[in-house]
Amino acid sequence: MESIYLDHAATTPVHPGVIEAMLPVYQEVYGNPSSVHQFGRKARRILDEARRTTAASIGANEKEIVFTSGGTEADNLAIIGSAMANQGKGKHIITTQIEHHATLHAVESLEAEGFEITYLPVDETGAVKVSDVEAALREDTILVSIMMVNNETGIIQPIAEIAAILKDHQASFHSDIVQAYGLMEVDVQKLPIDLLAVSGHKINGPKGVGFLYVREGTKLTSLQHGGEQERKRRAGTENVPAIKGFEEAIKILRDNRNEYKASYHRYKQLFLDTLKEEEVQFTVNGAEDKMMESIVNISFPGTNVETMLTNFDLSGVAASSGSACTAGSVEPSHVLSAMYGSEDERTTNSIRFSFGLANNEENVEQAARKVSQIVDRLSE
């Protein structure tokens, strides 16, 4: 039985070119990039080149890039670091109810420290309203944190419009662009965002590496205590092999972006068309015209997330849900609850399918037929 991977929004297979780029670094470049001798300088050159490539990918200056252990650390450094550095100007923070837990749990920790958090709702399209952001803004607002693309639904948020209303406000603007980076073009010269969080393993790079973009002049308190790496913003010896792999993943994505976008969109459409052909009852969660090419979140009436995922896995299809399954019970998706209300059945019968390098038209169609059979059986 062929296993079919439809969970690229969770993590992606490492591109062979990335592995090829990392191996020589593991084998030959073991110096500490902070050391002044030749071994350290060799590692430093790799680090500097990767920083330039990373910065160029979003139109930034290399001094504005902070390498991290991934998206979660980048989000935490942006949110908590910014809040701590700017609390003298106020303690009000704005975010949304549909953020990744890396953001939600970070602001919750600040809430426990006395900061005031406004959690904005979203409508049934899955997007936050710009007017709600504007209405929530106060003189003492110091940070607005809104993701660019939702990880569960793939819905693209109106980041450019929100950035425009924040342009003359004291608040820093942070966006988790983990799902958007690579497939969506981001240029910080045109988009006035102060802090952007990115993860390597979502773009066919290695796990354990990411970066935070910090616009020059943005105040940030370091969360780690140690050496003076990353311009004193993130202590600790840099993970040079992973950063090299991350750089290679960025280059591959840059050179193939349009091809990937077209392929992933085609896979998603083929998947949906096959479900319709099999006469499966389903609805797509969120506005399809605001959705990333690679993600679709589907509600299957009369079914249950946990049972579906188990059956999909047994048939060789890997997908996921925003619901947390523990001890036989299912916690409704916080994203779908924000969209439809916590009592709506879509919060516990919806599955996220996400497409990427592990897919081709044949295995996508095969997966859709397997999913159709299982859904039909479970909804009887």
Please give a structural write-up:
With 380 residues, the chain is of the alpha/beta class. It has 11 helices and 14 strands. It has helices at residues 16-28, 38-56, 71-86, 101-112, 130-136, 159-166, 229-232, 240-277, 305-314, 334-340, 361-378, and strands at residues 4-5, 65-68, 92-96, 116-120, 141-145, 172-176, 195-199, 210-214, 283-284, 295-299, 317-318, 324-326, 329-331, 350-354. The strands form 4 sheets. The chain has a 7-stranded mixed beta sheet with strand order 2-8-7-6-5-3-4, sandwiched between helices. A 3-stranded antiparallel beta sheet has the order 9-10-14. Helix 1 packs antiparallel against helix 8, helix 8 crosses helix 11 (361-378) and helix 9 (305-314) crosses helix 11 (361-378). The protein starts with a strand and ends with a helix. Its EC number is 2.8.1.7. Pfam families: Aminotran_5.
Q: Biggest sheet: strands, sense, closure? A: 7 strands, mixed
Main-sheet strand order equals: 2-8-7-6-5-3-4
Instruction: Give the averaged pLDDT, no decimals.
Output: 96
Total helices: the number is: 11
Question: Which CATH architecture of the largest domain would you pick?
Answer: 3-Layer(aba) Sandwich
The outline comes out as globular
Structural class: alpha/beta
Give the fraction of residues assigned to helices.
40-55%
Number of strands: 14
H/E element order? EHHEHEHEHEHEEEHHEEHEEEHEH
CA radius of gyration is 21 Å
Please name the CATH topology of the largest domain: Aspartate Aminotransferase, domain 2
CATH superfamily of the largest domain: Type I PLP-dependent aspartate aminotransferase-like (Major domain)
**Strand-residue fraction?**
5-15%
Straight-line N-to-C gap: 26 Å
Catalytic activity: (sulfur carrier)-H + L-cysteine = (sulfur carrier)-SH + L-alanine
Cofactor: pyridoxal 5'-phosphate
Domain Aminotransferase class V: 4-366
Organism: Halobacillus salinus
